[in-house]
Design a protein that fits this description.
globular, alpha/beta, 6-stranded parallel beta sheet, 5 helices, 177 residues
Length: 177
């Protein structure tokens, strides 16, 4: 097996998905730090941007579709547009990762129980190892309090695996690029 090569996957850091999320500014700050560290280590950064049909909340070009303040992909970064909770479904994400020789995804973003969870699980079945950054994903309040949703997913996703691939959940200060 070849050398481990990582990419930072930044999921849905847009105004809409981040609206009213738990510890929004704190999480964005942690993610900004992860982006800076990835850039310093010349790790590819892939931004995923959710979009929906014309007339909807996340229609391409609307204010809620835009990346949130402080999140600005560079021309060298890759932007993937998706229309489902799975960043791999009907997108070029797998092809982009394969072209770069990526074997490990470091995942941050919004929303924990939707796009973050689905993409992490899908990545494992697509042949990637995943490092979910425990303190760099967020969600809004629902039937269950946001902090409990995050805690639950950090614990559950840490045990997801296939024969060859797995998800590890660690805090941002323990991520090694």
């Amino acid at each position: 097996m070849g050398e481990k090569k990582s990419a930072l996957l930044v999921i849905d850091l847009q105004e809409g998905p981040l609206y009213g999320t738990y510890k929004r500014d704190e999480i964005i700050s942690v993610i900004q730090n992860m982006i800076t560290r990835a850039e310093e280590n010349q790790i590819p950064i892939i931004y995923v941007q959710h979009e929906e049909a014309a007339g909807s909340f996340l229609e391409r070009g609307t204010p809620f579709w835009q990346f949130t303040k402080g999140i600005s992909p560079k021309p060298s970064d890759i932007i993937i547009h998706k229309k489902s909770t799975d960043s791999f479904f009907d997108t070029t994400l797998k092809q982009e990762l394969d072209n770069l020789g990526i074997t490990n995804l470091i995942v941050v973003g919004a929303k924990t129980e939707y796009c973050v969870d689905t993409t992490c699980r899908s990545a494992v079945t697509q042949g990637f190892n995943v490092t979910l950054v425990a303190d760099a994903h967020t969600t809004g309040e629902g039937v269950i309090a946001a902090d409990l949703i995050i805690q639950h997913h950090n614990q559950n996703l840490n045990s997801v695996k296939t024969v060859d691939h797995h998800i590890s959940v660690i805090t941002s200060e323990n991520v090694r690029f």
